[in-house]
Specification:
It comes from Bacteroides eggerthii. The protein has a domain of 49 residues. Helix content is 65%, strand content 0%. It is built from five helices and no strands. α3 runs antiparallel to α4.
Length: 80
């Protein structure tokens, strides 16, 4: 299967993701955000979560805050 075929097959989903503000590499941070939610649900403070996740996933703390903010933002899809 070619890249074109994959993109064409998933065109509607990719358009929707782009409309919702998704970035192409967001899939890389799904496990990071799942860990963040688990830590918060057990009572850990945001600053502690960010510090731990930054070290664990090899990204800067600012990036972790950015990911958290983007992933928890409510998506609004405009009806056609």
């Amino acid at each position: 299967m070619t890249l074109f075929e994959i993109l064409n097959l998933n065109k509607e989903l990719l358009e929707l993701l782009a409309e919702m503000g998704s970035k192409p590499d967001d899939y890389k941070y799904i496990s990071l955000y799942k860990e963040y939610e688990k830590m918060r649900n057990t009572g850990d403070k945001v600053t502690y979560c960010v510090t731990v996740l930054s070290a664990r996933h090899g990204v800067c703390e600012r990036k972790v805050y950015e990911i958290i903010g983007r992933f928890k933002k409510e998506c609004m899809h405009h009806a056609v």
